[in-house]
Design goal:
Order of helices and strands: EHEHEHEHEHEHEEHHEEEH
Radius of gyration: 19 Å
Number of domains: 2
CATH architecture of the largest domain: 3-Layer(aba) Sandwich
Number of strands: 11
Number of helices: 9
CATH superfamily of the largest domain: NAD(P)-binding Rossmann-like Domain
Shape: elongated
Length: about 220
C-alpha cells in the first residue's frame, strides 16, 4: 500500500504536533514554515522540512503540492496568511485540505475558498487531529501518557456481527475495549459475548504503538 503523503504548512505548536504524529504513524510528511529555526528543529521528526514563504505560490508550487494527499494548514493567528496558504494549495491541486481557524468568521472564509475541513484547536489537540485524519475510523484520540492512549473507534466492517470474543481485540490488536457506544447508550465494561453492530463506537485503551498498528490496518 502506498504511504499517504501529507504536507503541513505552519509549524506552530499545533502544526508541529500534527506533522510529528503523522510521521510516527508511518506517513510521508513535508513540514513547511517561513521560520528557519522552526524548520531546523523539526527536520529530524518528519520526512522532509522546508523553509519557504508560505504565502508565495511559486515557492509552494516548487515543493510539488499536487503530489500530496492531504494538506494541513496550521497557521491560525495570521488570518491573511492562513487564507493565502489554503487558497494556494487548493489551486495547486491538493486533494484534501484541513485548515486551522482563529474564529467562526475565519472558518467561514476558509470553507468558501476550498478548505474541506476546518478545525478549532490548541496545542494539545494536534495529536488528536493527526490520528483522525490518518484513519477515518478514529473519532477521537486522548493521550494518557507518551506510551498509552484512549481512542474512540468506529467499528470496522469486518467486526460486524461478531462478539468481542470472536474478534479478540487484545490478542489481535493489543487493545482493551473499555466501552461500546451505540446510539445514545454506552455499555461500560462490555462482556466477551457482546456483539458488535454497524455504527457502534468502540472505546479502547492501548499502547501508542499498538494503536498505530490498528490505524495502519483500518486507515482510510
Amino acid at each position: 500500500m502506498r504511504k499517504k503523503q501529507f504536507v503541513v504548512i505552519g509549524l506552530g505548536s499545533f502544526g508541529s504536533s500534527v506533522a510529528k504524529t503523522l510521521y510516527t504513524l508511518g506517513n510521508e510528511v513535508l513540514a513547511v514554515d517561513s521560520d528557519e529555526a522552526i524548520v531546523r528543529e523539526i527536520a529530524d521528526n518528519v520526512t522532509h522540512a522546508a523553509q519557504v514563504d508560505t504565502s508565495d505560490e511559486k515557492s509552494l508550487r516548487d515543493l510539488g503540492m499536487s503530489n500530496f494527499d492531504v494538506a494541513v494548514i496550521g497557521i491560525g493567528s495570521d488570518v491573511q496568511a492562513s487564507i493565502m496558504a489554503t487558497l494556494i494549495v487548493k489551486e495547486l491541486g491538493v486533494k484534501y485540505i484541513i485548515s486551522k481557524a482563529h474564529d467562526e468568521k475565519h472558518a467561514k472564509l476558509l470553507y468558501k475558498i476550498g478548505a474541506d475541513r476546518v478545525v478549532f484547536v490548541e496545542r494539545d489537540m494536534g495529536v488528536r487531529v493527526a490520528h483522525n485524519i490518518f484513519a477515518s475510523n478514529i473519532l477521537d484520540y486522548i493521550e494518557l501518557s507518551p506510551d498509552y492512549n484512549i481512542a474512540e473507534i468506529v467499528s470496522p466492517d469486518e467486526w460486524y456481527g461478531k462478539t468481542l470474543r470472536d474478534i479478540d481485540v487484545r490478542a489481535n490488536y493489543g487493545l482493551s475495549v473499555i466501552a461500546i457506544k451505540r446510539d445514545h447508550d454506552v455499555n461500560i465494561a462490555p462482556l466477551a459475548d457482546d456483539i458488535i453492530r454497524p455504527n457502534d463506537t468502540i472505546i479502547a485503551i492501548g499502547a501508542t504503538k499498538e494503536l498505530s498498528k490498528f490505524e495502519n490496518i483500518f486507515g482510510r
